[in-house]
UniProtKB/TrEMBL annotation:
<dbReference type="InterPro" id="IPR036465">
    <property type="entry name" value="vWFA_dom_sf"/>
</dbReference>
<feature type="domain" description="Hemicentin-1-like von Willebrand factor A">
    <location>
        <begin position="33"/>
        <end position="210"/>
    </location>
</feature>
<dbReference type="Pfam" id="PF23560">
    <property type="entry name" value="GBD_Hemicentin"/>
</dbReference>
<dbReference type="InterPro" id="IPR056475">
    <property type="entry name" value="GBD_Hemicentin/VWA7"/>
</dbReference>
<dbReference type="Pfam" id="PF25106">
    <property type="entry name" value="VWA_4"/>
</dbReference>
<feature type="domain" description="Hemicentin/VWA7 galactose-binding">
    <location>
        <begin position="229"/>
        <end position="325"/>
    </location>
</feature>
<dbReference type="Pfam" id="PF23619">
    <property type="entry name" value="Ig_VWA7"/>
</dbReference>
<keyword id="KW-0732">Signal</keyword>
<keyword id="KW-0325">Glycoprotein</keyword>
<feature type="domain" description="VWA7 Ig-like">
    <location>
        <begin position="443"/>
        <end position="538"/>
    </location>
</feature>
<dbReference type="InterPro" id="IPR057615">
    <property type="entry name" value="Ig_VWA7"/>
</dbReference>
<protein>
    <recommendedName>
        <fullName>VWFA domain-containing protein</fullName>
    </recommendedName>
</protein>
<dbReference type="InterPro" id="IPR056861">
    <property type="entry name" value="HMCN1-like_VWA"/>
</dbReference>
<keyword id="KW-0964">Secreted</keyword>
<dbReference type="GO" id="GO:0005576">
    <property type="term" value="C:extracellular region"/>
</dbReference>
<dbReference type="InterPro" id="IPR052577">
    <property type="entry name" value="VWA7"/>
</dbReference>
Amino acid sequence: MAIAATSELLEDVRQAAGDTQFLQMMGISKGKALCFVIDTTGSMGDDIDAVKTVTSIIINSKVGTEDEPSVYVLVPFNDPEFGPLIRTTDPNAFKRAINSLTASGGGDFPEMSLSGLQLALTGAPPGSEIFLFTDATAKDEYLKSTVIALIEQTKSVVNFMITNLLVSRRRRQSDNDQQQQQQFRMTKSDAQLYIELAKASGGQAIVVTKSELLSATSIITESSSSSRVTLLQAVRSTGMTENFIFIVDESVRNLTVFITGTLVNFTLISPSGVPQGSANMTGPLIITSQSVGNFQTLRLNTQVGLWQINMMSTNPYNLKVVGQSPVDFLFNFLEVSKAPLGGFDVVDNRPRAGVNGSLMVTVTGSESAIVTEVTLVESSGSGKVNGSVEAQGGREFLVHFDRIPSAEFVVLVKGEISNTSSVPFQRQSSTSIRASTVTITATDADSVLVPGTPLSVPFTLTTDGAGGTFSIQATNDQGFTSTVPSSLPLETGGSANGTVNITAPTNTTSGTVVTLTIQAVAPGATDTNYVVLRFTVLKTVTDFTAPVCQLLSLQSNCSDNCSLSMWELSVQVTDGADGTGIDRISLGQGNGIMNTSLAAGNGTMNTSLDAGNGTITLVTYNASCCSTDVELVVVDQVGNVGSCFYTVRKNNINTTPTADATTPTVSVNVTTTKPQGAVSMASKPVQFFLLCFSMSLLASIFQIT
C-alpha cells in the first residue's frame, strides 16, 4: 500500500511539474548545464557579441548528442541591477535570451558581478560549469565569502573570462547632468578576486583582449563535456620549478592540458619516456596547441600509463589535466550522527580541521571499479594526508583520515577499473576544500516562507579553537530583507546561539526558492565557516480542489478503416469560483497529429486559457479514429491535478450532451443506435504543500548525491 501511495504521489508530481523537470528533479538528465553570467554594462558590446556566437556554436554542435546541455542558465548583471535568472531546457529559448542582451548603463567602473554569480550558483544544478564575462571589478566584493561557500557547497566550477583593455564608459555627472567619457583599466591586482574564486572552484581566470575573447571562449567551452574528468590540477601562487605526475588509464580519451599564466615553460614526458618541451610544439606528444591571452591548451596524444610534466616559471600559474572518461567519483565528508541509531551524517559545510574525519567516495560510470587509495592533497603545496579505505558495496567506499588538513586541499582518488586493467585510474576533485575549527549549524525544517511574514531561523555557532568576537553575516540570493546579529562572543571551545529573521515581500510569487547563507568569521579573519539553507515561498493555500472537465461535444465519423476517419472532442475546463485558476493543460494520452499551444502531447489540441478565478477554458481535441483514447491533464495555479479521460469506440457519432457530462464513468462507449456521450473524470487533487514537500525532499536527496 505504501509503495502504491508513493507511486501515485510521484505520478502526480510528474504531471504537475512536467516530464522534463521531473526527470531533472530525479537526477536523470544527460549532459551538464551550460551557464553564462554576463556583464551587460556599456563597454561589453563586443563581449556580448562573442557570447552570442559561442552560444550558437555550442548549441548547433551539441544538441542531439550525449554532450547536449541538460539545462541552460543565463544571469545578466549591470549596476545596480542584476538578474533575473533565466533557466530553460529549450536551446532555442536560450538563444533568444542571449540574443536579446544589449550593452548599456554601468555608471562607475565596478559592477555587481558577484551578485550575478551568487544567483547563478543557487540557480544552476550542483556540479555545473559556470562562465562569467566581465571587464570590470566587483562592486559587491563583500559577497566573496558567500560565493566561496556556494562554490564549495555545490562543487561548481567557475571560469572568469576577463577583458581588461582600456574601456570607455558613460558616466553622468551630478552637477550639470552632462555625460563625459572616462577611461578605466582593470589592473592585475583588481583581477585578483576573480583569480582566487577561480582557484577555489577549480576553474580558470582567463585574461584576454576583447578581440581574443571569442577564440578563448570557444576553446574552453568546446572542451567541456558531460564525461570530462580531472586527472590533475595544481595552483602555484609563486613560480618555481616543480614536477607533476598523472596516470592515464584505458578509459581516458581526448587528453588535454590547460595552463593559465604568463611566461610558463614546461616539459612533457610520456609513459614511454619520450620528452617534448614548450619550445617545440610540433613534437610527437602534442597533437594540437592553442594560445590566447594568458591561456594555453594542449591536446595530447593519449597514451596509457604514467605521465610527467615539469613546470618552470617565475610567475604564478594554474595547471589542469583533463580527459573524457565515464569513470569519475563523487564524495561527501561525514560526521558521527547524534541520532539514536548512530551511523554518519553528511557534513553540509566545511569539515572540522585538525581532527580525524571520514569521507564517503562513490565511483560513477563503472560497476567493476574499486578504490584503493584516497589522499587529501594541499592545493598550493606538497602536503598530503592518506586515508584508509573500506569497501561498502554498491560502488561506495568509506575512507577514514587521522587528520583533516588545515590548509586548503583537494581529494585525489586512485583505483582499478577492472582486474584486467594494465594501469590504475586517477581522478581529482576540481573544487578545493577548506577545513575549519568553527562550526555553524541551523535547520531548515520549517522550509516554507510565507510572503510578508518574517521567518525566524535559529543557528548555533561553535568553535574548537580560541574564543573572541565572531562576525556574523547573512545573505540571500533574492534580496529579501533579513536581520542578523552582527557578531557573537564565544569563549575558547565554546558556543553561542543566534537568529536570522528573513521576510519575503508580499508580492513574491509562490514557488520562488531563496537560498540563505549564514557565515561566521573568527577574530582577525583567521577562520570561517558557513551554513546554506533553502526555503520555498508559498502563499497560504485554500484551494485543495482539482480542476473539473465538462464534455461539450464529441463528434466522430469513425469507420472500419480507422486511418481514413477522425473524431473530435470539445471540453470545458474550470477550476471553480473559489479556485486559483488553470495554470496549464497537457495530454497524458493520445496518438493523433498534435498542435498544442501549451504543452507537448499527441493529438491536435487548441486551448484558450485565463488563469483568473472562475474562468472557463475551452479545449478542442482532434485525432485519428485509430487513436481512440485521450487523457487531458489539467493543473491549477497551486498544483492540484485533474485527469479527464475520454474514449470513442463505435461508428458515425455526433454527440452533444444535454446533461452534465462530468459524472464519473469508466469510458465513453458510443454506438450508432443510441447516440450518447460519456466521460470518465478522475480527479487527483494534489495538496500543494505536499507537492512542494516532495519536490524539496527529492531535490535535497539528489543534491547530496
